[in-house]
Amino acid sequence: MKEIFIVEDDDGIRELIEFLLVSQNYSVKTFPTARAFHRAVPNEVPDLFLLDIMLPDGNGLELCRELKENQSTQAIPVVLMSAHADINRMEGADDFIAKPFDVDELLQRIEKQLV
């Protein structure tokens, strides 16, 4: 079973994405903040990271950069999400999803990264 780590501060969005992914037989771990994410990552490595860009204690662009510079996580796909669709630097992310997103498109993009 593929595992996905989600970093999203909005409870509703985080719970919706978790529900969708679990219903598609993914194992999911969610984190509401960059700090909570940092505490978990050294111990476990998922198959994909799904990161919101705007977080209360950091940002997904910075997290993505850190992941891509780290030897143990650099090959793992990173998908960024943001309501600010004008983001032009993705800091090495493998894909970008604008919010609000279409549920089917979100699932397709995640699947594409995990092939």
TrEMBL record:
<feature type="domain" description="Response regulatory">
    <location>
        <begin position="3"/>
        <end position="114"/>
    </location>
</feature>
<dbReference type="InterPro" id="IPR039420">
    <property type="entry name" value="WalR-like"/>
</dbReference>
<protein>
    <submittedName>
        <fullName>Response regulator</fullName>
    </submittedName>
</protein>
<dbReference type="InterPro" id="IPR001789">
    <property type="entry name" value="Sig_transdc_resp-reg_receiver"/>
</dbReference>
<dbReference type="InterPro" id="IPR011006">
    <property type="entry name" value="CheY-like_superfamily"/>
</dbReference>
<keyword id="KW-0804">Transcription</keyword>
<feature type="modified residue" description="4-aspartylphosphate">
    <location>
        <position position="52"/>
    </location>
</feature>
<keyword id="KW-0238">DNA-binding</keyword>
<keyword id="KW-0805">Transcription regulation</keyword>
<keyword id="KW-0902">Two-component regulatory system</keyword>
<keyword id="KW-0597">Phosphoprotein</keyword>
<dbReference type="Pfam" id="PF00072">
    <property type="entry name" value="Response_reg"/>
</dbReference>
